[in-house]
Every structure is written in C-alpha cells, then in structure tokens.
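Please discuss these two lines.
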Amino acid sequence: MSRTPYRIRLRVGIALVFLLTTVPLIAVMLSYLYHENSRTALEVASQSIARTTQTVTNDLSGLVSPVARVAEAMAGFGRIDRNGLRRIESLRYFSDALATLPQLASLYVGFAGDGAFFQMARLAPDGGRFGPAAPPPGSALALRMQDSSSGRFADSYFYLRSWGQVTGVERAEATEDPRTAPWYVAAQKAGVAVMSDAFVLPATRRPVVTVSYRMATDDGVPIGTIGADVSLDRLAARLDALRIGPSGAVFVIDGNGRVICHNRADLLVGGDGAAAALHTTASFPDPVLAEAVERRNGGAGDRFIAPLGPQGRDYIVEFATLADGIGSGWTVGVAVEVDEFVGSLRRATYRIVVIGAGLLAVSVLLLLWLSHRLTRPMQDIVSETKRIRHFDLTGRFAVRTRVQEVAELAGAVEAMKGGLRRFGAYVPKALVRDIIVTGDGGELGGETRPLSILFSDIAGFTATSESMPPQQVLDRLTTYFERMTACIHGHGGTVDKFIGDAIMAFWNAPRPDPDHAEHACLAALGCLSVNRAINDSCLAAGMPPMPTRFGLHLGEVVVGNVGSSDRMQYTALGSHVNLASRIEGLNKVYGTSILVTGAVEQAVRGRFLFRPVDLAVPSGLSAPIELFELVGALDPHSAFARPPETHDLCRQWHVAVSLYRGRRWSAALDLLRPLADEPEVAALARLYIARCERLIADPPGDVWDPAEHFKTK
C-alpha cells in the first residue's frame, strides 16, 4: 500500500523559508533594541523630568516675583502719601501695571481706617460678570471704588475700554469690608509679601493666587494692604510647552490635594457660577493625572513607572515638592509616556537597522522574486475561479507567464468562463449561479412552493408578422424580449421560457423571495411601461406596434428540473401554471392589459391599485375565481403611481360592479353608461352594459350565478 507523499502549499513553503531566514535575525535585533531601551529610558526620563521640574519652579518665581515687586512699590507709594492711592489719577498706575504684566489679573488696595477699597481688574474676553450686572460691550478693564466720595459709603463700578475711556458705570451698596478678607489679614500678620492658596476668580472663572503686601507707616501704624491676583493661565501655557509628547501631563497640586495648574488650562475649573472651583486630584478630568496621584498616595513613591489612562499605556511619573516660599505644599508632577523617550535611542536603532538591512535585503528580494514568479500567476487563476464560482463571468482572463502548465491552466479557465456565459443564456442565471456556488441543483426532481407566475402575449402578432421577412420578425422579437426580460430580471423574476412571442416567468424560485407577489406586480407594471415605449418607437418608425397582454396568478406548484438525465429544463408545473396562462388569454375578452387573480390581489392588498373585473370560471375549472385588473401602485413616490382621477375612476367602477353583483342592474346601468366614454374602462363598461340590459330584459330566477363560465382556453 503506497503512502500519500507529504505535500505543502507553495506559498506556505516560501513563507517558511522566509521565516527561517529572518526570524533569528529579527530576534537578535529586537533583543538588542530592548536592552538598549531598558538601559537608557530611565536615564533620559530622569534628566528630562528634572529639567521640567526646575523650569516650572523658575516659571512660578518669574510669574509671582514681578507682581510682588509691584505690590511692594505700591505699598511704598502709599506709605509716602497716605491718601495718594485714594485719588483717581493715582489709580492709573494700577492700569499701567495690568498692561505691563499679562499674568496680573487684578490689582487692589484696602485701607485700614475706613475700609475703603479700590481695585483695577482685567475683564475676561468672553464676558462674565464683575459687578452687579454684565459689563457693557467693548469693556476691557473694570475699576471698583468702595468709598464715601459720593457723600455716602458706596460701591461704584467703572467699566473702561482703556484708561480714560469709560464704557459704563454701576453703583451698589457697599457690603464687603476688605479688612476682614483673608488676603488683608494674612498680610497684616506677616508684615511681608504673602501668597494665598489658589482659588477661582469669579469675574473670569480662571484660577489665580493672591500676593498681598502690608502698607504701614515707619512707626508700624497700619495704612492698609496692597493685593494682586496672579492668573495661573500663563503658567498653564508654559506647562503645555514643557509637556513631553501628546499624551504627557505636567501639573501642579497644592497641599490640599487640588490641581491648581495643568498643561490643559480648560480642565482646571469645574462647576458654574458661584459653584465654580478647582478640581481635586481624584475628580480631575485627566485620568493620567488622577491615577498617577492615586498611585503616589498609595505608596508608589515620587518616581515610578506604571500603566495609566484608559488605554493602560506605561508612563514614567515623577513628583517634586517645591521649596518653601512658593505656595503652600505645592508639588510639581510630570507624567510622560515611555514610548516618547526615543530620541537618545535613535543612534542605536539606526545601527541595528544598518546591520540588519543587508541581511534582510537578500531575504526580501528572494521572497519577492519567488512570489512574483511562482505564486502570482497561480493566485490570479485562483482569484478568477472564485469569481467564476460566484457566477461573475464579466471580462476576459489572461495570465502572462513563461510556465507552460500555468498558461494552459489559464486558457482552460477562460474557456470554461465562455462556456458558462453561453450556458447562462439558455438557463435561468440564478439557477446557474446556485449550481456553481453550492454544487447542487443538477439532479432531476423538484419541490412544491408558492410561485407568482406571469404569462405575456403580443396581441395580433401572428397577423402583423405574416407580411414581414423572417429576419425582420426575429430582429423585432429579439429587441422586444431583451427589454421585457431585463425588466423581469430587474424585479427579481426568473424567465422560464419563450413560447413563440409569449413569455413565461415566475418569482420565488430558484431563490426564495418573501415578497414575490409584490415584485411580480411591479414587474408586470414595468413591462407594460416598457411595452408602451416599444410601441411608440414602432409607430415612429412606421412599423406595427406590439401591444402586450399580461396574466398573473399565485399558487403552489412543483418547480425544479424536468426532463431526462442528459437533457433537462428548470421549469414550474401544475394547474396554477395552466391557470396563469388562461388568465392572460382572458384579457382580450375584457379589454384589459394586466389581469390578475384574487390570490395575487389578496397577497398585495393595500400596496397596489386594482379594478375588480369579474367572477370567472376559466376552462378546466369548476369553481369561480375573482379577476382584477392591476392599475398601478398606491405608493405616491412609486414610478407606477396613478393620478387622483384614476383612483376616482376605480372607486366608481367598484360601486358599479357591487351594484351589478347585488342584482341592482338598473342602478348599475346608470353608473356604467358614463364610464363607457372613459377610454381606460370603455371596453369593460360596454361588456357590463350589455349584461345589465340582457338581465333587465330577461331577469333570472332567485338563484342567479354572477360568474362567467368559459368553455374554451
């Protein structure tokens, strides 16, 4: 017994060779890169974070120190001239200080004697309130004066575009005493410049710190206190510039566990109105910061590497507490994604790439050459056979190759495509596609399922074709069949066969179609529209038209392969097929174009417009069936929607037929006679008029059968 030789796919073999060649090399390169990264990453991170911490410290000092000097200078001026800062012209110095120092949000003085308070503040660009009401448009500065210069102790607000350009004035009752404010009390106790904890300034909804300086005589008698609010937004912009990488974070937290500055200034303040406040570290919107502080508080220390953020990437985190004198327990934190520290590793990476490039080049070139020469033509053939399996037979197929066997295989595939393309013209394409895709469907036999069956026939075609040459008849039929079958296929139908100038088609086979009755009705209406266009073209060319009548029925039949083992046909068989054919023939009796049975009307009721035609017993049947004329679609957006006049005509006709079947023939006759002048129902109306006149002249007995019996097919 011979053993089946071991086989391996060509592409698998080539890939295996490539892997055996390159994997050891890649492993060595990655190992070297990993160890280099491990050795240098912490060094680079430590140096970078140390520089960042020192820079933040210097920036804080540079932010606060000029403001402290301004406050000290103002205190000196007030000590020399106790009432100088009460004069309006002296407050210009406040405006000049705001213009000189962009970090200065507000500068003010509170007096010890009477509690007078004078303040110059920068207004927020996006509005916001400073006094009792919103500042007038165009205001950039606000001057607040709480004193008794107006005759009584009051609070006055002056809004300015710039110094000297007043845009509005407000007055209110004085309700605050600056001498009880924390910034005033702290400066009076300390006797030197004092910096407060960070807080949210209500006028701008931005975080600030207050620098206050005591103003007193040489003998120590209190004159008042100078205060200045320093905006932390300038520091936030600086932190953003110091941030390393797009996902890195640089921030400052105070001793109370609040985030007082962050490289994203828009995240600092939470809440609205009076509830606006700085976030705690636990509630801060940046998950990297929140998780880093949580790990530090949990014992991770001031320097660690840990996965942070929603994606769990590794970060290098370092904290540094600032020296006394800069804030109260302020700590700078820096979090940088490990992957960002690649600058110092570029040389090592470059060396690895250079060393491995030569080795990789040989393997890659060999792989590409082998893949192109050996697998590309075969892959093209495989792809083409997959397209054929899905019955995609469009285009020509050719493979350029010097391998004889591959060229012969490609030729055989193209020949197979051509044969299947021609085969699809004789058999329903859906059936051929199913046979190719599933491999089933080539056996004799069938199954029972409900089908919507359509028959069409050209009225008077035999008579009009007798005088034409056979080739002309063939050309006309070819054009006619192509356009009609395209419409049937476009609505999911299967063309079963051509019987002379007639067409038989059905829906719900070979592929299931839950809405086959609706699709069959749409196809019938579409074919009627196409037929009218064909007739217009024939008349324009001086040729006789080809008016077509349609019969549509729904019922259970046997559908499948019929014939012999070497010659079979996919078709539908059963009494319902015969009935559909006979329904089509009844059109010439009633003068209709599309005649359908009650089974079809019931299946699509509410979706199409029908006209009741008759109760009829076709040849071969014993029980009457309801016949309707398919007029159009009820959907107003459909291409087959009919105008309101047609709907009114159908309603009138329905009443006339109801009167006729109710033995009220005189009343029916009164409605039918005007309808005989309507081209759409003229032939049918004349038929019913004749019936009514006959029944009135010779009334039947009590037992009357309104059904029409047909003896011939």
